[in-house]
């Protein structure tokens, strides 16, 4: 019996080997086992190829979908299966399509105050209105929630398209994030777990407000040129990246699927931390040098943000990833299982947070800061989209138009030189040669223009892409914070109405205080790395541009000198 | 009775104030008196405006057309009248249309060996064939000859069009030039005149072959910023250029019509000398700064070529033009009349040439050199057209595309800076300012691109335009030389057939020798100034380009420094 799957969301193929599928289409699968997140099969048009596993739902009698990624490090990658369940897939890394629909069933309960949560609503600002809108019934099962993330960066010729699609993600049901992240459960005092000392995450008061306590043992990690490795006597190939953390100085090999797995763990564990997105998945051309080099650069940026983050850099699962001997499968599986069974994820994560001694935060002030940050990320996202589209288009024009224009000038001078060469009198020869050289110099300048974007635009775009990932994370983080604030307002109202006792409301407020400290610390961290990264990147960009124009100047000076003895 | 004129050639209006007219259309003239070569009237569509006087023929009973330009320096310019007569109009400077048809009636006689003279014919190379093609009847009046010159430079957006139209001029009846120039009359021994010592023009043997004897009193002449002057209490305005020759150090004022008049005299006088074209006529916008500045630059180039030419620089009419006191109308008219009555023009010009002592030139070798030069000018003309079209298009793109692309980058950075300004923490401020400055720097770079063509492309195009004028002259010069060579071959055949005696044929050969010396001297001069001019111009172009890229580098370095304290 042929294996069938129902398509959940439209997918438009963008690379050779991929096929397009439509929502509700029934496709035939060749195997239930995906290849790094892609399934092979045929659509109703009869086209055969790959499509994202997460876009389809296998049609079978026992629809028991697994919530967790139970992949073992066997020869076929079994993790990250097509699934409609929340958690893993919901936070899977961006995939190479412009619109990414991630469907997830609600984790149950508490969807009754769904409807009025959107950007333009004044819900959070006007507590009086809130109570009226939300019922207190926390037990009804809400409808499935639906998230549309459009924050992927398209680096192609169609920058305009990239612009329109790359906006901060929005949840049709915003509230789900608050619920799903565990934020609500925590605020409501439902989280419980044993916090070991090693799990403690400290927020301290810094010069600019709450911030994560610095990692006392900072380290970095290099990612060396990846190598293609094979298994099963060459039947299966994969790319292994060589990671060398500075604190162990021991190289480990990791595959993209390991990064993918780690990313999923981190997203699940840290509700108000912006986990940097790992580079896009790509089904075809995976072994091509350009792609490998691009992915490596993306991973280097990702690693930089991981090791720069005081919380992420220290966490067990990341350390396991960085330090576990690649050949010790047993140790790897052990650490993997441990991470997957980690109890201090989601709601419980907040239990591990230790806030600075001193007064609680002024929640009005917190709200104002969060609103300011929301405005900031929105504006930054727009401008990043513009810089991205503009520099992308600029790069494309340098590679095509600019190169062509300079080479046309070169060609015209060469033709002039050739015409002059018909006159072979002694006093003409020097000029003829000089003009011929000038023609070649302009040819070279054309080439310089075409080669330049790799040096300056590409690195800038890598950075922008990483930040687009962060900016896509923040709406969810803000919603968790906003959800907590709303709960506080709600509980105050409940107290006034006599539905809740004061200590209970104080508990809500206290837990909201913890979420607020964590959120503000994360925002502070974001600003700091943003300033650090953009300063460095702009310096690099300008330095490259200066070098570029100097190279042109040098070439033209060389040409000019040819006339000295002409 | 309304004054009517028949249109001889299509004219497409290119500027406001001009109207288009079609061949054979009958137009109404408002006045028979032109305004610097333009007539005012209305076409059959009822449009009113200006069209070139030389494109129409006045329809009236007494068709007595004047051969000479009898203009007096009165208040209305009366010279350069619409005329179908040869001489003045036939050699008038290029006018601002892309195809310039100059119609001229034959100066009578000798058009019977018209038909076979074209580039691909081997007439001149295969003497055996020549005699058979040409009859010896030299007295029949041939048909009107027709010259199509397409060698105008169009500096507009439509460079491609300029390319296709700008080719070396061709005479449908090539032979006419030989006749008209007086070359034939001279070769046939029909020229006669008294050559004063001061009129003597010496060809000497130089390192590279025959060349004009250098002007023993070389000089230059500056052309200062022209001023607008008025006559008749402001009723009539004109632009006066201030000329200061180095050998007199006395400034004289000259109007465009004076240049025009001088140009006509020179063309009439010197059959095998390439008289540099004066800048284009233009009916509208004559008082606009851009136009005046452009014309001045064109006149400077023209003056440079005039004073650089050993023969032209010395001749009386040019000296009169350079030195006659602008306010002494009597002296001016006297010199003007003298020049117009000069007998040593055309055929008689050759009488003034003194060849070097020593053997005559080998006419086979001369023919080969001339053929080589013809190939050279053809190739050079093509390449000049290409350089012209390419740099013109390059300039246009710098002014539009390049500017826009760099300013878009600037705008994107500025937007990013504005987004970042929403974060007003102390550690962000430096970066925000630096990014804002970077945006401005790229704006400035865009401006640099737009301003640059004026510095490098424009001067290059001015030079190319001047050379296109020379290249358009050479076919006629070559044809005079070729005509003389053919006469030699013909006379040899006549001797063989007993139709001519040997001394007569020797006379033809001797006179052809004189024309050959003059032509080779002129070609040598052309190559020398060409190498001089293109070397200097390419150096200037590259120097400007280097300065341009250094300016960009400097601006970006300035931007980079802003990040030092960010």
Automatic annotation (TrEMBL), chains A, B:
SMART domains: PX, SH3. PROSITE patterns: PX, SH3. CDD domains: PX_SNX18. Residues 219-329 form the PX domain. Residues 100-165 are annotated as: Disordered. The keyword S-adenosyl-L-methionine does not apply. Residues 1-61 form the SH3 domain. It is a peripheral membrane protein. The keyword Acyltransferase does not apply. InterPro entries: AH/BAR_dom_sf (IPR027267), PX_dom (IPR001683), PX_dom_sf (IPR036871), SH3-like_dom_sf (IPR036028), SH3_domain (IPR001452), SNX18_PX (IPR035703), Snx9_fam (IPR014536), Sorting_nexin_WASP-bd-dom (IPR019497). One of its GO terms (cellular component) is cytoplasmic vesicle membrane. Keywords: Cell cycle, Cell division, Cytoplasmic vesicle, Endocytosis, Membrane, Mitosis, Protein transport, SH3 domain, Transport. It comes from the Eukaryota. It is found in: Cytoplasmic vesicle membrane. A 1,2-diacyl-sn-glycero-3-phospho-(1D-myo-inositol-4,5-bisphosphate) binds at residues 255, 257, 295. Belongs to the sorting nexin family. This is Sorting nexin. It comes from Esox lucius.
């Amino acid at each position: 019996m042929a294996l069938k799957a129902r398509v959940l969301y439209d997918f438009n193929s963008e690379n050779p080997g991929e096929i397009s599928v439509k929502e509700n289409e029934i496709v035939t699968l060749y195997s239930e086992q995906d290849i790094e997140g892609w399934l092979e099969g045929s659509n109703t048009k009869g086209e055969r190829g790959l499509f994202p596993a997460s876009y389809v739902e296998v049609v079978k009698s026992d629809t028991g979908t697994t919530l967790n990624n139970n992949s073992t490090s066997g020869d076929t990658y079994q993790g990250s299966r097509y699934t409609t369940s929340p958690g893993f897939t919901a936070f899977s890394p961006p995939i190479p399509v412009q619109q990414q629909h991630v469907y997830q069933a609600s984790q149950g309960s508490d969807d009754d105050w769904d409807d009025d949560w959107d950007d333009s609503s004044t819900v959070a600002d006007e507590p009086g209105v809130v109570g009226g809108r939300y019922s207190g019934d926390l037990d009804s099962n809400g409808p499935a929630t639906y998230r549309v993330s459009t924050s992927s960066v398209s680096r192609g010729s169609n920058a305009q398209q990239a612009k329109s699609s790359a906006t901060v993600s929005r949840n049709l049901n915003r509230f789900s994030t608050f619920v799903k992240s565990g934020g609500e459960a925590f605020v409501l005092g439902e989280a419980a777990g044993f916090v070991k000392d090693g799990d403690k995450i400290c927020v301290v008061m810094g010069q600019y407000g709450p911030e994560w306590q610095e990692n006392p043992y900072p380290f970095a990690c290099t990612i060396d040129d990846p190598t293609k490795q094979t298994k099963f006597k060459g039947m299966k190939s994969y790319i292994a990246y060589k990671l060398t953390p500075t604190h162990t100085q021991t190289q480990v090999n990791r595959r993209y699927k390991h990064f993918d797995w780690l990313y999923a763990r981190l997203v699940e564990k840290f509700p108000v931390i912006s986990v940097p997105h790992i580079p896009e998945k790509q089904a075809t051309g995976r072994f091509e040098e350009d792609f490998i080099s691009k992915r490596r650069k993306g991973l280097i940026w990702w690693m930089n943000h991981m090791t720069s983050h005081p919380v992420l850099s220290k966490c067990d699962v990341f350390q396991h990833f960085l330090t576990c001997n690649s050949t010790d499968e047993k140790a790897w599986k052990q650490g993997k299982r441990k991470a997957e069974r980690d109890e201090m994820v989601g709601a419980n994560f907040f239990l591990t947070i230790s806030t600075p001694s001193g007064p609680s935060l002024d929640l009005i002030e917190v709200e104002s800061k969060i609103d300011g940050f929301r405005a900031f990320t929105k504006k930054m996202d727009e401008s990043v989209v513009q810089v991205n589209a503009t520099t992308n288009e600029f790069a494309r024009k340098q590679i095509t138009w600019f190169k062509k224009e300079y080479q046309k000038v070169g060609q015209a001078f060469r033709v002039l030189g050739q015409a002059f060469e018909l006159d072979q009198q002694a006093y003409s020869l020097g000029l003829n040669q000089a003009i011929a050289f000038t023609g070649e110099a302009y040819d070279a300048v054309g080439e310089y223009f075409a080669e330049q974007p790799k040096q300056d635009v590409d690195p800038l775009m890598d950075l922008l892409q990483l930040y687009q990932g962060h900016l896509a994370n923040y709406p969810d983080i803000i919603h968790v914070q906003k959800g907590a604030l709303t709960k506080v307002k709600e509980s105050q109202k409940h107290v006034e109405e006599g539905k809740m006792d004061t200590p209970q409301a104080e508990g809500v407020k206290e837990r909201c205080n913890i979420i607020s400290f964590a959120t503000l610390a994360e925002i502070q961290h974001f600003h700091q790395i943003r300033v650090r990264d953009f300063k460095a990147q702009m310096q690099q960009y300008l330095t490259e541009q200066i070098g570029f124009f100097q190279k042109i100047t040098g070439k033209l000076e060389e040409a000019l000198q040819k006339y000295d003895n002409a």
